[in-house]
Amino acid sequence: REAVSLCVVIDGLLCYRGPMVMKLWTMMVAFYIYMGAGNGQDITTLNNGEWWWPEWLRLNFLQWSALADAVLWVCLEVLFLVYKAWQRGPSLCWRSPGLLTMVAALEHLLNACFSAGGFLWVYSQANFLRKPMVCGQSDTGVCDDPRAATLDTMMQTLQPCICYWVARIVIFIIMTRRKFPIFIRGKPGKRRFKDSNIQQELLANFVWVSILMSCIFVEVQFLFPSTRGIDFNTLCGLKFQQSVFGLPQQVGPCSEESNVLSSDCVSCLSAVVVAQSLIFLTCLVDIYFMFYIYAAIVGSIMGSNRHLNNLKNTSVPIDLRPGVGKEAKLFEETFGPHWQYVWRAMVKQLLEESYLSPRLADSLAGAARCSLDEHVAVGQKDSKREKAINLKKFPDVASERLAFFFHSLMWIKSPSGPARGMKFNSETDALTGKDFDHGSVPSLTMIIPAYNEAVVPSAEFLRSGALREDAMNQNPDNQVGVGDLTNPPVGDGMNSNIGFIISQFPDEWIFLTERLFSEGKIENNSSHMLYKQFMHCTLRPEMVGEVRLWAMFRTQSVGKTVVGALQYGRALATVPKIRQYYQTRPEKRIPEDHCEVILAHQTYGQDAPEGDPENDDAVRMLMARYSMDSLFLVFDLNPASNAHVRGLVNDFLNARRGYGIGAFKYGSIKCRWDPARQDISVLAVLPRMHPLRLGVGDFKTQGKACNQLNGLRFATGHYVQALDCNMGVFIGEGFKVPYVLRVFMPFEKKNRGAPRCRYLGFREHIFTAREGTVGKCHASAEWTFGTIYQRFLSGMGTRMHYGHPDFVDGFWVRNRGGMSKSSPVVNLSEDIFAGYNVRMREEGSPHIDALEFEKGRESTFNAASNFFSKISGGSIAVMRSRDNHLLCERIGIFQSWSFYFTSVAFYLSNLIIDISIYLYVLLFVMFTLANIDLAKLHALGSTFSTEWVMSMGIFSIFPQLLEMILEFGALKAFREVFGLIPAATFFFIFQNKNISSSMKEGATTGIAKYFFTGRPMANQHQTWRDIYVTYWKSHYKPAFTLMLIYIVYQVLVHQTFQGALPMVLIVISFVSWIITPILFSPFPRWPLIEQDIREFSAFINGVAGKDESEVFEVERRGKSAKVRTLWECGLAAQISEWSDTSMEVLILKFVLDFTLTAYIMTVIPAEILDFLWIYIVVLSFNSLLLLLYLLSNLSNIILNLQTVGWLLALPVGKLVLGNRVMLPSIGSRLPELIISFAVFLRALQVAKQAYLIACKAAYYARTCSGSSQNIARRHYFEAIRRAHLYFQQHQVDMAEAYFLMLSNTVVSLLLMVFDRICGNTHTWWLLNREMARTNWGEQYLLKSPPQMESDQQREGSNYTSEVGSDYSWDEDGGMGTNRPLLQGRTPMTVTPEVSPNLGSPTGTSRSLGTMRSQGYAR
Question: Distance between CA 829 and CA 874 in Å, rounded?
Answer without folding.
Answer: 5
